Amino acid sequence: MIAELCLLFFLVALAYSAAGFGGGSSYLAMLALWSVDFQLMKSTALICNVAVVIGGVYHFYRSGHLPLKKAWQLSLISVPLAFVGSYLPLKQATFFLLLGVALTLAALVMCYRLFFEREEPIIPANRGNGVVYGVIGGAIGLLSGMTGIGGGIYLSPVLRLGKYDTAKNIAGLSSFFILVNSIAGLCGQAAKHAIVFDWKFTGPLLLAVILGGQIGARLSAKVLKPRWVAGATAMLILYAGVRMLIK
Question: Is residue 23 a contact partner of residue 16, using CB atoms and an 8 Å limit?
Fold first, then answer.
């Protein structure tokens, strides 16, 4: 089991790191399909998210595609709400219900981006309502904390539709958003002594995503074609989400 998960985690990190994502929704989907304990799922997905996007944040910042003022505007409300969401006591049935909804929505968003979103340059709007986007970021942060995902899969389409910034800057902003929310989620779990870390299980997966993330962060989207990889993983996420909702 662990060898198969390592390969899948490596491929997910490789594909999504180039686009500014950590792959948390895919990690959770795979762990759910492998019937991993739900507390171990949340901790493992968040730790892997941090390991992948920390390299992406560095890469985007060095290349000038991470506007820090906008990054903090988006994260100011989301970080404390991600902590609160992770700290909230959730029963296993409630967690899987929320996760099923979150994964299903994530899969639909990914399918929309693949089949309906046009590949055209984004011309940023002259003025962006920072308060509105901050509130939206807060709502996504709360959901990410409760379910153990970074939230970038939801933030990125919102920013693109609102023409918040250029495509590369949005990727950088999403990467930063995932990083700070994943750390806040881990802090929330630590505060209630709910972090579950098994070196024999999580260690190999962590090494796999670090390797995949570092390679992906250094390759261009043209090489990896993450849009089409997203289409394949969207089917996996959709299957896992619907399966949880049915159960």
Answer: yes
